[in-house]
Design a protein that fits this description.
The protein is α+β, with helices and mostly antiparallel strands and 402 residues long. The chain contains 11 helices and 15 strands. It has 2 domains: 2-43 and 51-190 and 296-344, Antithrombin, Chain I, domain 2, CATH 3.30.497.10; 198-293 and 348-399, Roll (Alpha-1-antitrypsin, domain 1), CATH 2.30.39. Helix 1 (35-48) crosses helix 10 (302-311) and helix 2 (59-70) runs antiparallel to helix 3 (75-85). The structure holds 2-acetamido-2-deoxy-beta-D-glucopyranose (2 copies).
Length: 402
């Protein structure tokens, strides 16, 4: 039988028994360190990023969906997943999962990150009885012969969790082949600490290749931002914080060399070390920011399975799959992993956020400060939304053209 992992994003529920680990009740760490996860995330991102289109991807979501699957694994399937997902054992993984869920459901003021998990299983599958307790509301048994019902139920869940941003992820074709579906959904909405003024947004050129441009709605502001230049990535780096200092968007704008390959060259050098080094050396500067307004979604289907296999998760997708910790008597392999993400970036900021920079100050100043840095996103760039408290990167993306 096939298991289908639909990954939009995630977090796992409280567990009380010894159902999926030796100690399901292990206390969640107050502040889980999600740094190891970024290794997995960046490696995976580089494998699945589209070479030609805008791309938005949540490695955290994929990690969450796979970790949920991991709780069902045994044997070689389990050790492969541990290695690739940077997990050590079920007890710790479960504690981390619970911690992440607690944090993302309780912290909710200046930005919103909603994650949710569901396992949908067909009524004919014999799951371990205790799973119903461990996963409580996360586990739903459905009649998978009734394809329309399953499609509607899963898509409704996804739509609710993403607040209507993603309205569908499964189709009847997908459900027909499946006995179990893992869905993991994420929604993020941040408000810029320093919002852009709508009146400053104008149509400007963005170079989509070395000598080809199109027009885009380009936002504009001048202010104090953390900024730096990464020699290793050969890119300007800007931090645009969301309200509350808990999350930021980091933008990586490769130096213009008129090749049209700058972004892809940079992605080739992107790894956990070069990323961390680039973020460490940012300092406050006066920056003139031009940043496009955009909204797009990405779906990764077959490429995701291929990439995960290339990283070392192979048994899970084959006849060698061992998910006996979920269903001891059924043979289940994962047939598909689908990931869909959406992003929308606009001027919106905190209501009445303080504007720190006063345009024109340079002119009247007796000792003019050094001229502002220009950060003009007028060519393709990479961005990462980082939860700076947990060092989690819920989203990574590239913008190539409007
Ligand atoms: C499951 O759904 C199919 C198709 O709608 C239906 O024929 C069948 O009776 C249902 N099974 C149960 C146990 O309700
Ligand atoms: C939300 O933002 C305000 C103002 O920046 C800050 O004082 C507050 O601590 C933030 N709340 C959280 C939970 O981060």
């Amino acid at each position: 039988m096939n298991l289908f992992v639909a990954s939009l994003l995630a977090a796992l529920a409280g567990a009380r028994s010894q159902c999926i680990s030796q100690n399901d009740a292990m206390a969640p760490p107050a502040s889980p360190d999600l740094t190891p996860l970024n290794d997995f995330g960046i490696n995976l991102f580089r494998k699945v990023v589209s070479p030609s289109k805008n791309f938005i991807f949540s490695p955290f979501s994929v990690w969450s969906a796979l970790t949920l699957t991991y709780f069902g694994s045994n044997g070689n399937t389990k050790s492969q997943m541990e290695q690739v997902l940077r997990l050590t054992n079920r007890e710790d993984a479960l504690a981390t999962f619970k911690a992440v869920e607690n944090i993302y459901t309780s912290r909710n003021n200046n930005y919103t990150i909603d994650t949710a998990n569901r396992i949908y299983a067909t009524e004919t599958l014999t799951l371990k009885d205790c799973l119903q307790q461990v996963f409580s509301d996360k586990l739903k048994m459905l009649n998978f012969s009734n394809v329309d019902l399953v499609v509607e139920t899963v898509n409704q869940f996804v739509s609710t969790t993403t607040r209507g941003k993603i309205t569908s992820i499964v189709t009847p074709d997908i459900v027909k082949e499946t006995a179990m579906i893992l869905v993991n959904a994420i929604y993020f909405k941040g408000f810029w600490k320093r919002k852009f003024e709508a009146k400053d947004t104008i149509q400007r050129k963005i170079f989509i290749s070395a000598n080809e441009h199109v027009m885009v709605d380009m936002m504009h502001q001048y202010g104090e931002f953390k900024y730096g230049f990464s020699n290793e990535l050969d890119a300007q780096v800007l931090e645009m914080p969301y309200r509350g200092n808990g999350a930021s968007m980091y933008v990586f704008l490769p130096k213009d060399k008129k090749t049209g390959q700058e972004l892809d060259d940079m992605l080739g050098r992107l790894n956990p070390d070069s990323l961390a080094a680039a973020l460490r050396q940012l300092v406050y500067e006066d920056v003139v920011v031009r940043f496009p307004k955009f909204k797009f979604d990405s779906i990764v289907d077959d490429e995701l399975k291929k990439a995960l296999k290339a990283l070392g998760i192979t048994d899970l997708f084959s006849g060698a799959s061992d998910l006996s910790n979920f269903a001891p008597r059924d043979k289940i392999a994962v047939s598909r992993v689908i990931h869909k993400a959406v992003i929308e970036v606009d001027e919106e900021g905190a209501e009445a956020a303080a504007v720190t920079a006063v345009i024109g100050a340079v002119i009247v100043s007796i000792q003019p400060p050094s001229p502002p840095v220009n950060f003009f996103c007028e060519r393709p760039f990479f961005f990462a939304i980082v939860d700076t408290k947990l060092n989690n990167i819920p989203f990574m993306g590239t913008f190539r053209k409007p």
